[in-house]
Amino acid sequence: MDRFKTILNIASKQTNLGFGLVALLTAGGEQIFSSVAFKCPCNELNFLYGLVFLLVPALALLLLGYILSKKMWILFTGIWHNRAKLCCWKNLATTCTAFFQISSTALVAPSSWFAVALLNGNYYECAMTGTNVSVYNQYLCKDMNSELDCAKKLPMLPCDKRNEELLRTLRSQSQILGWLVITSIMLSSLLIICLARCNSPISYQQLKFWRAYAQEESELMDLYTNKHAKDLAERNLKSFFNQMEPANITTPSNKDWEKISLLYKFSTKDHFYSTLHRYVETNQEGDGIRMVSVRSNESTDNPAVLHFVDGGMVSI
């Protein structure tokens, strides 16, 4: 178990390795799913059945990628209350750029499923033998003696393995599409990375340092948050059970939390590496909340969106 955690930790720090691990797990899951759960009905439902198995799991993986994205919830938490700021063109462009980056990461698993499913060919065979496009059916049956009988028997083709020629044709079409999908994904990824690096305001080594800093800050933030929450909970419990005055504990105000919870875009003018770094270097007001036994003036009617945490998990 410790070795498995170590592997996951390394994968989370190395983006390319993490993407490769996600793609590998998705490909393995598709192979198991295809051999165990998929059974083509070989009737008029072929097209719908094959299309559902080809697209719906990819859609589910895409939604799961959004749900588990920490940046997703940093971006959208509280956005309804700040919609006036969002109307600004600059803020809207930054939000769209951040959402594009989140989507590019979330698309790794569904694109892997889609490509591997096409290379496998089972879903495509089932779907295309149930299509009602007469031109395509005539194309498949052009070398057969009776095209009319062939078109009528197409839905039974995945269950009847005697006509291997048609099955090979369908499988070859599916694999060609699969390789085209893989090539297009690789080319688009390369172009996007090249454009991003060409427009980078910092050098490669500084960008590497920025990523290392952001990773370390995120891990330490989780540790410090848990420790501070534990200290505050222990203080409150001791005060309640011992019926004594609580000790003073200073915690950041709502405004302070909001300042460090934004997605950060690097600027060469400020030379800060995160919103937390900028807050520490520029904020000298010390307007934290001192947690004592007084009633807060703030509303306690928190919106339901606070049930989501940064890691994308939902409290049930």
TrEMBL record:
Coarse class of the protein's main subcellular location: membrane
MF terms (GO), sorted A to Z: monoatomic cation channel activity
GO cellular component, one term: plasma membrane
Highest taxon above the source species: Eukaryota
Topology term for the membrane: Multi-pass membrane protein
Regions that span the bilayer: 47-68, 176-196
GO biological process: ATP export
One matching Pfam family: Ca_hom_mod
Cellular compartments annotated: Membrane
Keywords annotated in UniProt: Ion channel, Ion transport, Membrane, Transmembrane, Transmembrane helix, Transport
Family to which the UniProt record says this protein belongs: Belongs to the CALHM family.
Protein name as annotated: Calcium homeostasis modulator family member 6
Organism the protein comes from: Poecilia formosa
